[in-house]
Write a structure and sequence with these properties.
Elements (H helix, E strand, L loop, with lengths): L14 H14 L2 E3 L17 H5 L2 H10 L4 H6 L2 H14 L6 H12 L9 H9 L3 H12 L1 E5 L10 H6 L7 E2 L2 E2 L1 H5 L1 H11 L11 H18 L4 E5 L10 H17 L3 E5 L1 E2 L12 E2 L4 H10 L5 E5 L5 H10 L3 E3 L9 H15 L15 H25 L7 H21 L2
Parallel strand pairs: 1-2, 2-3, 4-5, 5-6, 6-9, 9-10
Antiparallel strand pairs: 7-8
Helix pairs in contact: 1-17, 1-18, 3-5, 6-17, 8-17, 12-13, 15-16, 16-17
Bound molecules: D-fructuronic acid and zinc ion.
Amino acid sequence: MTLQNNNSDGIIRSDEKLKIAIENIVENQEIIDIHTHLFSPPFGDLLLWGIDELLTYHYLIAEVFRKSDVTYDEFWAMDKTQQADLIWQKLFIENSPISEACRGVVTTLDKLGLDVSSRNLQDYRDYFSSTSVEAFIDTVFKQSNVNKVVMTNDPFDPEEGPVWETGDTGDTRFEAALRMDVLINNYEETAYEHLRGLGYDVDPTLSTEKGYKEVRRFLESWIQRMNPRYMAVSLPPDFQYPDDGVLGRLFDNCILPISREYNVPFALMIGVKRAVNPNLRMAGDGTGKADLDSLETLLRENQDNKFLVTLLSRENQHELCVIGRKFKNLMIFGCWWFMNNPSVIEEITRERMELLGLSIIPQHSDARILDQLIYKWSHSRQIISDVLYEKYKTLLNVGWSLTPSEIERDVNNLFGGNFEHFLSKN
Ligand code: FIX
Ligand code: ZN
């Protein structure tokens, strides 16, 4: 690490030196990105990368329909290159790319050393076709200064299965998270049949001791296979706990006991309304304000369980911070999806630091396309650095002494240390 204009053990005395020190430290801090949708190379086509994937990110698909007369049917009949061409034309050429998702593409191309002023899509395509995925992974990890990413791994996905069977997921910078949306949100429709097909003796409504035991056996086998950092689920805003349905029975009899036994925290991502507009396919999900009494109950009644939580509604964020002050078994993480915009990241980060100090994980990328690590982290690092500067400055201005190594310690915790510590605690 290089610290410009600062003796690394010296006390920082001016606002100007403080700003430079924080920017350098945040810039040089390696990151553990705790939630992405990226995959290591053995997962083949599940690992998305390149300009056409960047342009057809579902955030941009939602935006293109607002600026083009293309119908849903026409758009979905196009191949990926045609979709990317349309998005480039409508959102980058006929309009300036100022939304966060558009700006992200521009930042990414620029940081990859491409000339964004040329606006020459073919040049960008040529760049990506001249590199291998392995080389590009190195480029992206280096450029974004990320050293580990946590994937989202679905035990019900037939495309992932064969890779887990081999026991070799390749690049160890990609770690697993055991995703349980199908089990929890689609037990009766999908998971039940799937589990039966694998020989698990479960019942259709999951209401027997035998069924609970079998689901626990299923979870154990995946924990052994994946060695996940945590188990995770996304939930609608009307999620309730306690619950006398399948969700409640799964939580109380299967997931929470296994999470305690194996010391694998449970991540809850609450507030997504799936398929608000199904015509948009993956881009059609929305958001809603959750009832956080349920989260409080879950935390209070399961104090030996560890929970990672992120919420999709801006209106819930302050309440979540207050809950964080009450429950040390809760680690708040990231600015999820519609929260991952500069104005909201800034607001939430400030609010979290004011209520919870440095005991948070301020951000994750949610990258679906490898290249996005570059812009998502570049944009977030800048905002987190600005908020930290504002906070440290108030201390410095009343005479508190600060050294670069103390700032390094704090930043290291925010970008990875808190995650590792929370996971390792018993
Ligand atoms: O459920 C999730 O993990 C969400 O992050 C995704 O499903 C969503 O589509 C997304 O990419 C958000 O950034
Ligand atoms: Zn996600």
